[in-house]
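Predict the holo structure. Ligand: FE2/S2 (inorganic) cluster.
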Amino acid sequence: MAEEGKSETPKRYPAVYQYGPHTVRGLKPGEKKKWCTCGLSKKDPWCDDSHKGTGFVPLLWTVPDKPQTLYQICSCKYTTKPPYCDGTHINLPCDVLDRQRDCKKNKEHSNCRKLCTNCGYVPDF
Ligand code: FES
């Protein structure tokens, strides 16, 4: 519930780039990365500025100091532990399809250019 005098920001839903993580190698401890949060990047899991105009911004992430060979980086964009995959993608497909079917803006989807942040719908994805 919103505090008096403050309006609640409606939840925005990103696009699902893929229903599973990217396995990333070769990251250097201390390296700075921008994790894509909108799901539209062509360089997923990293940001390519495709989020512009969607209200999403990338997550700035510093590769941990403890050396690690592989990282499972979330590509569904619904993880609760960004940028790491936490398994959320496993039950996601039905949730996404239901949300897009029930989207109150689905009549506007034919005019959608980039992303319906109300449900995560992306034209021609
Ligand atoms: S890819 Fe997003 S939680 Fe696994």
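The mean pLDDT is 92. The beta strands are 22-25, 32-35, 59-62, 70-73.
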